Amino acid sequence: MPRRSRSFAPIAQVLRWTAALRGGVDLDFGEAVARVEVARDGAVRVRAATGHALPPDPSDALGREPWRASNAEPFALDAGREAPGPLNHQAGREAPGPLGQQSAGVALAFDGADGAARVEIDERPFAVRVFDRSGREIAHLLDFAFAPDGAGRVALRAAPGERWFGLGGKTGALDRRGRSFTLRNRDHPVAERADPLYHSIPFLLRLATSEGEAARADGVLLDGCAPSHFDVAAQDRLRVMATAQAGGLDLTIFPGPTPDDVVRRYTARTGRISRPPLWALGHHQSRWGYRSARDVRRVAREARRRRIPTDAIHLDIDYMDAYRVFSWHPRRFPDPRGLLNELREAGFRVVTIIDPGVKVDESWAVHRDGEARDVFLRRRDGSSYSLKVWPKDASLPDFGRPEVRAWWGAQHESLVDAGVAGIWNDMNEPAGWKREVRAGRLIVPLQAQDLGDVVASDPADPKRRVPHESVRNAYGHLECRATHEALLRLDPQRRPFVLSRSGLAGIQRYAALWTGDTTSSWPQLALSVRMLLGLSVSGVPFCGADIGGFAGWCSPELFARWMQIGSLYPFARTHSMWLKHRQEPWRFGKRVEAIARAALELRMRLLPYIYGLFCEAEATGAPIWRPLFWHDPDDERAAAIDDQLMLGRDLLIAPVLERGATEREVYLPAGVWTAIDDDARYIGPRTVRVAAPLERIPIFARGGSVVPMQSAVRHVGEIPEEPLVLEVYPGGDASTVVIEDDGESPAYRGGIEARTPVRLRSRAGGRLRLEVGGREGEFAISARTVRVAVHGCPPPSSVWVDAVRLPVAGRTDAAVAATWHWEGGVLHVRWTDSGSARSLEVDPAP
Ligand code: MIG
Question: How would DSSP label each residue in 531-557?
């Protein structure tokens, strides 16, 4: 367990600095060392540790993107220096060496196309200040201190009026300011005051607003494999204290100024999600307790019969033989290949759970082989270690070693061969228990296991053995890396899907995250929104919570509300615990079933939009779910809201999170907003009260947007009746790109994709003008009908397509193969799309 009280000694004075490093400076304190580097995108990395050298760097093992060193060179600062000016002001450069009496420290400055930063290092007491391109201070690190056991602590100045977001899916308010958090991967049920939980993302996004100036965002990551602790201006209102339990301090500052800029830089370092397979964006149905192939078939059949859109079925631990990973129960799942084939034909992919614990069993080839290759964690004295978990005693792979990751990955071959489409990594904090009681199928864990005397390979230097605790937070991350890479290797034609419970900063590169064991309650429904926004801000775009809640009893009303927002989670999976009643969407009566169907159909209709968001996440790191402040950082009211969210830039979601509610208050930031179901229009900034009967989740489209949609399908393999509908919401200009590809293979990386640029000009000479550019890229799409729907539109006096005025409503113009009609405030235009550029003009502009 992490030690609570330590004595920290400050590192006092910089004795000398050396400029040997490209884009950085090395500092020597005698009893400690530090290194400060500036990257070409303006990110600033500050490492410090006691001793004479920095500890080995785990960046490669964690899958960090290479540090792009700038050409910043250190120069001495004058003693009598004044407040820093803009970056282009460079002080005279001096020869490196010991810091003289008159010197006040050393500085680095870089200004390039991708970013800029100026760093000033105070010599005594040691402090690091980072300024952005405009000369504004974006970080002030001070009070570096270390404990004898290697733990490091640093303070970051915090100003009044700042908000601090991030740290992954923590509970409580989205703004973390005023509270303390532990980041140590732990298997613990989700509860409002539970901390820590399953994953650890030591990244904070600060939103600073000051009188008369535009709001600015910047970020800080405390990197490494060790558990950590953050006091977010709780003890001292003007300080954020970050503590790493081991491995020295490794901080990176990411300049903004917008939240998008921060996350772009943060993910340029920690990695980005790659385009998931399209099926993974559909609805996943899961339950702990699908006990047999028959059971699974029945669920699949019901989903289709009842037209509940579903793309994946998850198999929890019940599919295994005595909980041996990489096995199938011979009686209950006698023919996995046959079953998976059959499901595949009906449009279902199967995701199987994998726990890291390998059953200690001489007769089980996986364990035997692992023993022979010495892949498992051991105790400090070299003896073998086992953990109590589902298969009784289990050995844990030592994922810090690359050969162990390769070995683990190779075990997935049989699953992939049987047709398994994705892997669900559970229990990877890692979790297990010390004692248990077993009575038939019932296993009651009695005491959490902390792996106290276990040693592990240091991911940064696998030949070194270190206490497991000191690298604990990387365990699940490295398992997911092994799994992700194995899936890609075993089936290079398919994009991997990995779902994980545990994770570390950068997990987005290898896996989607879900929030673990929730309870079916109203407060937890609301909490799920905040947890997923927290994850989203922390660089994890693909995240979800169990729809309906994991433990406890879900009421029909709660299920309906959970389905409505859960269908819009980036990762949408219905899951529940085995002892509770079944939680498939048809288990709560006809009315709720219809609500679930409508919710999931909306998700399927939104797939082109949602897919576009995932493509954006791949390209820039932008989250799928965004807090309201994301696109309105100057809006103080928006910054305080965490029960609404943006799904991408253009859809504002106001989920109903209260029992018995039939209406809710919605805050709409500046702009025009149109409710997507009844086309009611609102002008923000404004708080409105809208109707929210059980059948309704209020959703608003941004004025000045084009939302690509399609008609509903039951799974992504089905051909939609309308493959592309451009929902146009006037009220501003917009530009977007519709991206289509095979949804399955990585071929898009070689350009096998179709990109259609779309531009909206709400008022071009009194008309509304929509320009759909010619399709770019190599992905072939056969001729099809595209529909454009212009909302909030009075009956038009004339409609032009490609500069040809269309005849009266309902009549097709042969020259441009287009037709229009108007109904209930919406103008619909249909045209044949063969990939060439088209334009639409509507007079008068709505
Ligand atoms: O100790 O595999 O969070 O989703 O159903 C519980 C059984 C183990 C915890 C996961 C949950 C899963 C369950 N697992």
Answer: HHHHHHHTT--SEE--BT-SBS---HH
Residue 85 above 70 pLDDT?
Answer: no
The partner residues of 358 in beta bridges, in order of sequence, read: 395
Which pair of structure tokens corresponds to residue 826?
């919406």
Q: Which of 285, 287, 288 to mutate to test the pocket of ligand 1 (most atoms within 8 A of CB)?
A: 288
Burial class (CB in 10 A: 0-12, 13-18, 19+), 201: buried
Judge if the beta carbon of residue 517 lies within 6 A of ligand 1: yes
Digit-coded pLDDT (tens) for 462-510: 999 999 999 999 999 999 999 999 999 999 999 999 999 999 999 999 9
pLDDT value for 99? 53
What is the 620 CA–ligand 1 centroid distance (Å)?
33
Q: Which residue's alpha carbon is at the smallest distance from atom 13 of ligand 1? A: 288
Nearest to 141, CA basis, from 163, 157, 123, 122: 157
Task: With cut-offs at 50, 70 and 90, classify the pLDDT of residue 445.
Answer: confident
> Can you give the length of the chain in residues?
846
- Give which of 396, 387, 384, 399 is closest to 458, Cα–Cα: 399
Determine whether the shortest distance from the Cβ of 318 to ligand 1 is under 6 A.
no
Question: Which of 211-220, 434-443, 464-473 has maximum average pLDDT?
Answer: 464-473
389 lines ligand 1 (CB under 6 A): no
DSSP-derived pairing of the beta strands 818-823 and 826-833: antiparallel
Measured on CA atoms in the order 273, 274, 275, 279, is the torsion positive or negative?
negative
Separation of CA 426 and ligand 1 centre (Å): 7
Atom of ligand 1 at shortest distance to CA of 431?
Answer: 1
Per DSSP, the three-state class of 370 is helix
Catalytic residues: 426, 429, 517
Assess whether pLDDT exceeds 60 at residue 2: no
Residue 815: per-residue pLDDT: 92
* pLDDT value of residue 79: 66
Ligand 1: nearest atom to the Cα of 317: 2
